[in-house]
Design goal:
single chain, 131 residues, mainly alpha, two-stranded antiparallel ribbon, 4 helices, 53% helix
């Protein structure tokens, strides 16, 4: 198999991994283990009863899986191939970012208008090397 097929195979594997059926509970547990940190920047985030919005968790899960997959797979390729993969992963990451930006966190119980707020989502990366 040539390298072009290897890259295509890797992309197909990623697609299967992030689109597989996973229960919301499993996604929520996985997201907790992925070390995402959420920091409010502006607006009243306290109006939200929780950030357990299914769409929010699903997108975070996909971003986390994308990051894990990239870290695991990128070392298999040469510099030119890594650049191709990086560009693909960045475009997919941007797509998920846009989906996050469009989520509606309206307050259903109070029938209030959607709350507007800004938050920063950071994924802490553990240093795997020990000194």
């Amino acid at each position: 198999m040539n390298k072009k097929n290897d890259i295509l195979k890797t992309i197909q594997e990623l697609h299967l991994e992030i689109e597989k059926a996973v229960s919301p509970e499993k996604m929520s547990n996985d997201v907790r283990m992925m070390n995402f940190k959420i920091r409010p920047l502006s607006g009243d985030v306290n109006l939200l009863t929780s950030l357990n919005n299914k769409g929010f968790i699903e997108i975070l899960w996909k971003i986390g899986k994308l990051d894990e997959f990239y870290i695991r797979e990128v070392k298999k390729f040469n510099l030119k191939e890594k650049e191709i993969l990086k560009n693909f992963f960045v475009s997919l990451h941007d797509k998920f970012q846009q989906q996050l930006n469009k989520l509606n966190f309206s307050l259903e119980k109070t029938k209030a208008k959607p709350a507007f707020f800004e938050m920063e989502i950071i994924k802490e990366i553990k240093n795997r090397k020990s000194n």
